[in-house]
C-alpha cells in the first residue's frame, strides 16, 4: 500500500532534479562560501610585524588540513624580511559547490611595505581555495596558487545550472580563441575571435584588428595556453553569465626565451541565437 503512493500520477509534471553543483543555484550557500573564502585569504595572507598575532589568529580561525602548512610555507620568508603585507581579495567566484565542499577561485592583490629601507611593491595572484564545511562554517582546506581546474561536469537541474554550465563551456573555448596566437596564421586568429564574440566586443575586435595583426606580425609572437584553464561563474541568468578565469600562457618571440604568464581574466557571456558568445573580457589589473 505504501509503495503505491510513490507512483507518479499521469499528467503531473515531474519535479526538477537538484543539480550536483549548487554554485549560484543555492545563492545563500554560494554567498556564504564566497565570503568565508575571501575573508580567509585576506586574513591569512596579510602580515603586520607589529601585530603578528593577527595572522596567527586568522589561520587558526579559517584554515584546516593542508591549507595550514601551505600558508605557513608561503609566509615564512615574509616574516624574515620584516615587511608588512596587505592582501585584498578583488574578485571571487565559486566553481563547484556541494553541501559539504566547494572550490572557489579568488583573484587577489597584495601590497608589501618595508621601512628599513623604505620600499613598497604590489602584485597580483590567483588562488583556488578548496573549502569544506566543519561545525557549521566554511574552512579553507587546500589553497593552490596560479591554479588549473579541469572542467566541472555539467550538472542539469534548472535554468541557472543550464546557463552556468553551457556558458562556461563556451567561455573556455572562446577565451582560448583570443589567447592562443600563431604569428603564421594571424588572419585565422582574428576570424576565430570574431566567431566567438558578440557586441560590443565584436565591434572592438574589428576596429583594432589591423593594428593588432601588424604588431604581432612584427614581433613574430606565438602564444600557447596550458590545458584546464581555471574558470568559474560569478553570476548566471538565462541569457547573461559573468565569470572569472585564470589562464597559464607561454609567450615566445624570435630570439628570446619563452616567458610564462598567468592571466587573470573577467568576462561576460551573452546567449545568442547560435549559442553563447563573449560580449566583454579584460585582464584584471593590479591595484595599489
From TrEMBL:
InterPro entries: NTF2-like_dom_sf. The keyword Membrane applies. Its main location: membrane. Keywords: Membrane. GO terms for cellular component: membrane. It is found in: Membrane. PANTHER family: OUTER MEMBRANE PROTEIN RV1973 (PTHR37042:SF4). This is Uncharacterized protein. It comes from Amycolatopsis albispora.
